[in-house]
């Protein structure tokens, strides 16, 4: 007897019990009965547009669509009768009458597929052999399933232009069948609303409002539309002619600290691309533009390091691994503990980080290990890490009643968070965004507090006072100026909210007031009971703390000042570890004592040449400039290794190898172990990443189960006082207009990176989206200065002068300039009052 949650149906003479509420199509799929369809998709609500899934149902008029008809008790369904297939063929002929379909009905199509391979890569699709989706097209599959032999209607070619101007994917709507999948994915799942049906009748097509480019229409380039397209109408630029992938591997995206799960598409020993994975804990089957489109170009670049190299003077020689290891070991053996430093990327796996810090402490007898995260977060580094104690799961966004977003633009790098925010709004959440410029959240939030750059700390301190136990006096409204009503309203929302959340982006992290901003966030969270969602730019920032990849911290996140833990760790490793004392950090590079040997793993700081006498450079690509390193070691990328990361929530995420490393490249931990063994050190005979995880679990039992499917959320447990980079001079933004400097120039950090390299340096499409090294100027300020797009301008202040290209940006507020620059190129203070003039034009 069936339960209340099941019904019994008969489908194609099979009597089965299925879950109540399923559609006929879903019930058929769960019982391995194939019904053809073109508009249905597992992630989308039923649409019934293509009519291909029609079926016969006893006692039901006509031929209902299986994707929209729910099952009922006793229903008798036939999916493959002569009448049904005849009608399906007629519908398919109508669809194909506006589609380049000659190959679908050609008697020689199989021979053509085998032998006519040179006609591929056409600019316009005139048949399957000219289509990038050939052999992976759902329309082909349906035509084959129905046995279509001819098309009885005149063929109408629409003569639409092929759209290739936007990055990452091309669009040929001449082969679009108007199934609506891309529109529904954009509107219902991504909730972005970029795509829609345009025009009517025979002229109907897919596009953006007012025929704007996708870039101008606010597209996030998440690729969800490409993933669900059943034909070749939407094609990814980098792999459109690479054919069908042979296999896929589930792994974790390494491009930020969210930890999205992805499926790497591999063919031979090459990564073709990536697709989102179904993950109910983090990304819910979605990716941002970086995870979706940047992987293949990054890991397949022709400049990948393939063999070790030695550079002496102006010459470069290729070495064997044994020669390279011997050279590194010899240099390191001669180096005193205080003359050595190791800088490792917080994008590296936990296994690499753990082995690196073990090498520094047990072999080099030093605590001189650090990551460039200290430089990225500048004076706010320690305050940022303290917020990890208040971290809540990303799922809290869905439950939140009020969400305050600080310096967060969720269009590109964190678009999966934008999706969650839009879902929260649909469920009644109030979203407040604090940001100086128009951005993705200013359109959807209920409140946009448009701050003057540099005043964010004052705004947050106002919220702290208004949400404190005693509240604030009425006179505070005058002190808060024009933003007083918005600040007061936001404070009231937070005080009354049963489930507030504060989401922290990267916009303010290079400001001189960064530490004040982050400390105010901490206090605001305490006042209101809000959870904090941190979205670090680095994929493994929390893992770098838990593995002990900083001078101040040991594995398990225990402070290095804990002498008892130091002795215990030394006993496990069979060595006497050095006492923790005054230490070197990444902030010391080029400004303090010059090291004898600097070992760089996935890092390339600007001060290389002045940092050390001998530099070991270990990465997937060579240094940017010749002569920046003496010994260059080829490392494997994330797609070529097994390992783990810890995302911003504290969840352990697995990284799985999809292809072999190119050339002779090795995993970072393997290279370190070879050097340590060459130096005579014990305890570095790991054979796999699993062996390293086993040792990590003996140091921190809470990290024992790396394969835990629940990947439990875990905030940072220990309080560690981290030394921040030297604080920048912090001056009030009121200085704008004083001393002949009428404009305020603010700089944000480059956050879209992998192993210290901007993605824009390796991925062509990223250059369009991530405007790094370019000054954004309002049309009013551009007109006043007589400058246009792509002109070079001179920014100058009392202690600062730079020449940079300019982009006239409609959304840039008048009186303010903005740029994204590397940490070493930011002005001090930041923001900074400046004046501008066009290069090669004398000032009056």
Q: Which features would summarize this protein structure in a list?
A:
globular; Rossmann fold; N-terminal domain of TfIIb; alpha/beta; 7-stranded mixed sheet; Dimethylsulfoxide Reductase, domain 2; 844 residues
Provide an overview of this structure.
The protein has 26 helices and 35 strands. With 844 residues, it is an alpha/beta fold. Among the domains are: 53 residues, ADC-like domains (N-terminal domain of TfIIb, Single Sheet), CATH 2.20.25; 226 residues, Rossmann fold (3-Layer(aba) Sandwich), CATH 3.40.50.740; 155 residues, Dimethylsulfoxide Reductase, domain 2; 106 residues, Beta Barrel (Barwin-like endoglucanases). A seven-stranded mixed beta sheet has the order 13-12-25-24-23-14-15, with helices on one face. The radius of gyration is 29 Å and the shape is globular.
N-end to C-end Cα span:
92 Å
How much of the sequence lies in strands comes to: 15-25%
Roughly how many Å is the radius of gyration? 29 Å
Helix content: 25-40%
The third-level CATH topology of the domain at 309-371 and 541-703 is: Rossmann fold
Shape: globular
Q: What is the correct CATH architecture of the domain at 309-371 and 541-703? A: 3-Layer(aba) Sandwich
- Structural class of the secondary elements? alpha/beta
Strand adjacency order, main sheet: 13-12-25-24-23-14-15
What is the typical, i.e. mean, pLDDT? 89
- The strand count comes to 35
Could you name the CATH class of the domain at 309-371 and 541-703? Alpha Beta
Q: Main β-sheet: number of strands, strand sense, barrel status?
A: 7 strands, mixed
**Runs with pLDDT <50, length 5+?**
none
Count of runs of 4 or more consecutive helical residues: 26
